Protein backbone atom coordinates (compact mmCIF):
# COMPACT_ATOMS: atom_id res chain seq x y z
CA UNK A 1 0.00 0.00 0.00
CA UNK A 2 1.33 3.47 -0.89
CA UNK A 3 2.44 5.62 2.05
CA UNK A 4 0.37 8.61 0.90
CA UNK A 5 -2.72 6.40 1.15
CA UNK A 6 -1.78 5.29 4.68
CA UNK A 7 -1.34 8.94 5.74
CA UNK A 8 -4.65 9.87 4.08
CA UNK A 9 -6.49 7.10 5.93
CA UNK A 10 -4.85 8.19 9.20
CA UNK A 11 -5.90 11.78 8.52
CA UNK A 12 -9.48 10.68 7.86
CA UNK A 13 -9.65 8.57 11.01
CA UNK A 14 -8.26 11.42 13.13
CA UNK A 15 -10.69 13.99 11.69
CA UNK A 16 -13.66 11.67 12.25
CA UNK A 17 -12.47 11.03 15.82
CA UNK A 18 -12.24 14.82 16.30
CA UNK A 19 -15.87 15.19 15.27
CA UNK A 20 -16.88 12.89 18.12
CA UNK A 21 -14.51 14.24 20.80
CA UNK A 22 -14.34 18.00 20.02
CA UNK A 23 -10.91 18.32 21.64
CA UNK A 24 -9.16 20.09 18.71
CA UNK A 25 -6.01 17.99 19.26
CA UNK A 26 -7.18 15.14 17.04
CA UNK A 27 -8.20 17.60 14.33
CA UNK A 28 -4.76 19.18 14.40
CA UNK A 29 -3.14 15.76 14.12
CA UNK A 30 -5.50 14.94 11.24
CA UNK A 31 -4.44 18.08 9.36
CA UNK A 32 -0.77 17.23 9.99
CA UNK A 33 -1.38 13.72 8.64
CA UNK A 34 -3.09 15.15 5.54
CA UNK A 35 -0.15 17.47 4.84
CA UNK A 36 2.22 14.54 5.38
CA UNK A 37 0.16 12.52 2.86
CA UNK A 38 0.90 15.29 0.35
CA UNK A 39 4.62 15.08 1.04
CA UNK A 40 4.46 11.28 0.68
CA UNK A 41 2.75 11.70 -2.69
CA UNK A 42 5.65 13.94 -3.75
CA UNK A 43 8.03 11.06 -2.98
CA UNK A 44 9.63 12.12 0.32
CA UNK A 45 11.18 9.12 2.14
CA UNK A 46 9.46 7.77 5.27
CA UNK A 47 11.92 9.25 7.83
CA UNK A 48 11.35 12.74 6.42
CA UNK A 49 7.58 12.15 6.38
CA UNK A 50 7.73 11.36 10.09
CA UNK A 51 9.74 14.53 10.69
CA UNK A 52 7.16 16.59 8.75
CA UNK A 53 4.30 15.03 10.73
CA UNK A 54 6.05 15.55 14.08
CA UNK A 55 7.05 19.17 13.41
CA UNK A 56 3.61 20.12 12.10
CA UNK A 57 1.88 18.44 15.03
CA UNK A 58 4.05 20.02 17.73
CA UNK A 59 4.02 23.52 16.23
CA UNK A 60 0.26 23.42 15.62
CA UNK A 61 -0.54 22.12 19.09
CA UNK A 62 1.64 24.79 20.73
CA UNK A 63 0.08 27.56 18.64
CA UNK A 64 -3.50 26.43 19.30
CA UNK A 65 -2.80 26.00 23.02
CA UNK A 66 -1.46 29.57 23.26
CA UNK A 67 -4.53 30.96 21.50
CA UNK A 68 -6.87 28.84 23.65
CA UNK A 69 -5.22 29.96 26.90
CA UNK A 70 -5.47 33.59 25.80
CA UNK A 71 -9.21 33.17 25.28
CA UNK A 72 -9.69 31.32 28.57
CA UNK A 73 -8.14 34.12 30.65
CA UNK A 74 -9.91 36.93 28.80
CA UNK A 75 -11.48 39.52 31.10
CA UNK A 76 -15.07 38.90 32.09
CA UNK A 77 -17.54 40.70 29.89
CA UNK A 78 -19.27 43.62 31.54
CA UNK A 79 -22.84 42.93 32.63
CA UNK A 80 -25.59 45.03 31.09
CA UNK A 81 -29.37 45.24 31.13
CA UNK A 82 -31.14 43.68 34.09
CA UNK A 83 -28.08 41.54 34.86
CA UNK A 84 -26.24 44.72 35.84
CA UNK A 85 -28.83 45.42 38.55
CA UNK A 86 -28.07 42.25 40.52
CA UNK A 87 -25.92 43.13 43.54
CA UNK A 88 -26.81 46.84 43.51
CA UNK A 89 -28.46 48.59 46.41
CA UNK A 90 -32.00 49.93 46.25
CA UNK A 91 -34.22 52.08 48.45
CA UNK A 92 -37.67 50.87 49.45
CA UNK A 93 -40.41 53.25 48.23
CA UNK A 94 -43.44 51.20 49.31
CA UNK A 95 -43.41 48.41 51.90
CA UNK A 96 -41.89 45.22 50.45
CA UNK A 97 -43.19 41.81 51.48
CA UNK A 98 -43.00 38.35 49.99
CA UNK A 99 -45.95 39.30 47.80
CA UNK A 100 -44.94 42.72 46.50
CA UNK A 101 -43.77 46.27 47.02
CA UNK A 102 -41.77 48.99 45.25
CA UNK A 103 -38.09 49.95 45.28
CA UNK A 104 -35.96 52.59 43.57
CA UNK A 105 -32.85 51.20 41.84
CA UNK A 106 -30.69 54.02 40.56
CA UNK A 107 -33.27 56.42 39.16
CA UNK A 108 -35.91 53.85 38.25
CA UNK A 109 -38.79 52.51 40.28
CA UNK A 110 -39.27 48.74 40.21
CA UNK A 111 -41.83 46.34 41.57
CA UNK A 112 -40.19 44.22 44.22
CA UNK A 113 -40.70 41.32 46.55
CA UNK A 114 -38.68 40.11 49.51
CA UNK A 115 -36.23 37.26 49.02
CA UNK A 116 -37.47 35.77 52.29
CA UNK A 117 -41.27 35.63 52.13
CA UNK A 118 -41.60 36.15 55.89
CA UNK A 119 -39.86 39.55 55.81
CA UNK A 120 -41.61 42.90 55.81
CA UNK A 121 -39.29 45.71 54.73
CA UNK A 122 -40.49 49.23 55.62
CA UNK A 123 -40.28 52.27 53.29
CA UNK A 124 -36.94 54.10 53.45
CA UNK A 125 -34.90 50.94 54.13
CA UNK A 126 -31.91 50.07 52.00
CA UNK A 127 -31.96 46.66 50.35
CA UNK A 128 -29.71 44.63 48.04
CA UNK A 129 -31.02 43.31 44.74
CA UNK A 130 -30.57 39.53 44.82
CA UNK A 131 -32.05 38.78 41.39
CA UNK A 132 -34.42 40.09 38.76
CA UNK A 133 -37.44 37.86 38.15
CA UNK A 134 -39.16 39.16 35.03
CA UNK A 135 -39.92 42.79 35.88
CA UNK A 136 -39.68 42.28 39.64
CA UNK A 137 -36.60 42.88 41.76
CA UNK A 138 -36.10 40.25 44.42
CA UNK A 139 -34.50 42.07 47.36
CA UNK A 140 -33.03 41.41 50.79
CA UNK A 141 -32.59 44.03 53.53
CA UNK A 142 -29.13 45.32 54.42
CA UNK A 143 -28.16 44.91 58.02
List key phrases describing it.
rod-shaped, 5-stranded mixed beta barrel, 2 domains, 143 residues, alpha+beta, OB fold (Dihydrolipoamide Acetyltransferase, E2P)
Write the layout of secondary structure elements.
Elements: H1 3-21, H2 25-41, H3 46-72, E1 89-94, E2 102-105, E3 108-114, E4 126-133, E5 136-141
Parallel strand pairs: 3-5
Antiparallel strand pairs: 1-2, 1-4, 2-3, 4-5
Helix pairs in contact: 1-2, 2-3
Helix coverage percent: 40-55%
Order of helices and strands: HHHEEEEE
Structural class: alpha+beta
**What's the Cα radius of gyration?**
30 Å
Task: Tell me the overall shape.
Answer: rod-shaped
What is the straight-line distance between the termini? 79 Å
What is the percentage of strand-forming residues?
Answer: 15-25%
Number of helices: 3
Total strands: 5
Spatial arrangement of strands, main beta sheet:
1-2-3-5-4
In total, the number of domains comes to: 2
**Uncertain regions: pLDDT < 50 for 5+ in a row?**
none
Largest sheet: 5 strands, mixed, barrel
Mean pLDDT: 91
Structure description:
The chain is α+β, with helices and mostly antiparallel strands. It folds into two domains: 3-72, no CATH class; 81-141, OB fold (Dihydrolipoamide Acetyltransferase, E2P) (Beta Barrel). Helix content is 44%, strand content 22%. It contains three helices and five strands; from the N terminus they run H-H-H-E-E-E-E-E. The chain has a five-stranded mixed β-barrel. Helix 1 packs antiparallel against helix 2 and helix 2 runs antiparallel to helix 3. It is rod-shaped. The model has no long low-confidence stretch (mean pLDDT 91).
Amino acid sequence: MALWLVWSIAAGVLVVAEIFTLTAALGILGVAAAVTAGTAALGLPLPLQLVVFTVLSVVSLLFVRRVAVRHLIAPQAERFGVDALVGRSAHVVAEVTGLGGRVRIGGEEWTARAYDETLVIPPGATVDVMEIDGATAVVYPRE
